[in-house]
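retry 2 of 3: previous attempt timed out while embedding 6-O-phosphono-beta-D-fructofuranose. Reduced batch size to 1 and resubmitted. Inputs unchanged:
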Amino acid sequence: MSRIGVLTSGGDAPGMNAAVRAVVRKAIYHGLEVVGIHRGFLGLLHKEFVKLSLGSVADIIHRGGTMLRTARCEEFKTAEGQARGVDNLQEEGIDGVIVIGGDGSFRGALALANHGIAVVGVPATIDNDLPGTDYSIGFDSAVNNVVDAIDKIRDTATSHERTFVIEVMGRRAGHIALLGGLAGGAESILIPEIPFDMDEVVFKLQRGLNRGKLHSIIIVAEGAASGLAVGEEIRRRTGLETRITILGHLQRGGTPTALDRIIASRMGATAVDLLRIGESKKMVGIVAGKLVATDLDEALKQKKELDREILELAGILAI
Ligand code: ADP
Ligand code: F6P
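retry 2 succeeded.
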């Protein structure tokens, strides 16, 4: 292995830059050349290659987004697209690729590996829905963005004694809603993994108001329901004045937290080590504080479990 590629793909996540920096610096430290592939698999198909130096990743550790840019690329899901991607890598003399992204990006990584390219995945998605790791890069920053928003909304909610419904990201996974809701002191947390009961949401709301709560905050993951619909249903059933906030892409931007920078640095460096010792088809993860490598195909067959104890705890603490 003498020349490796690195790309970021799918939804961006704060901390991706710190991961790119770690990959580049660790690889150069060990005498490898590093090629940045711009715009994920789309850039791979269009040969958007740029040689990266120590200096090209300077001053990015604290920046959100990804300096390599990211994209979604339908063509790479086809056999022809994948074959062209492999040809382009071979033409460029790239023996191994580090793919920084979520589960979709890892499926693309697996396709490259099945064509004989050495591939290691670094989990980066605010959804934190990848098995094989406790944390994906970007999740902690997104949760902190959510909590920051809840805190601000709480100020105005208290002043007006209003009920707020806050819709957060997570089409198929409720991890952001769950931890954001716990840290933000939400009355109810609605997530896609567990069907919710509107009667219970309304019961908790009224119980809180009866004991003198000045406001109520309900967190809804976008995959569980529409925040607008939940807000309207609460208003219809209770007559309470409700306000709805959809946090949207605000959650995905901004400065990565220290935790995201730390895990990105550790995971990026470990991905380089795995390629150096001849590993492929692996994803890096952090489990109970320790770096681990999981088989990519195994990881993609599983679904990350949601911590139901946290959901229960959030319910108890909001009593
Ligand atoms: P994420 O990595 O955040 O889950 P996506 O699901 O949008 O993001 O996937 C990012 C990209 O990965 C897709 O646009 C596509 O180029 C590639 N990809 C996704 N699924 C596959 C697949 N089954 N085979 C090959 N490439 C895939
Ligand atoms: O996968 C990350 C994520 O932010 C999801 O939480 C969200 O549903 C989706 O991406 C939004 O995708 P887009 O950026 O295409 O709107």
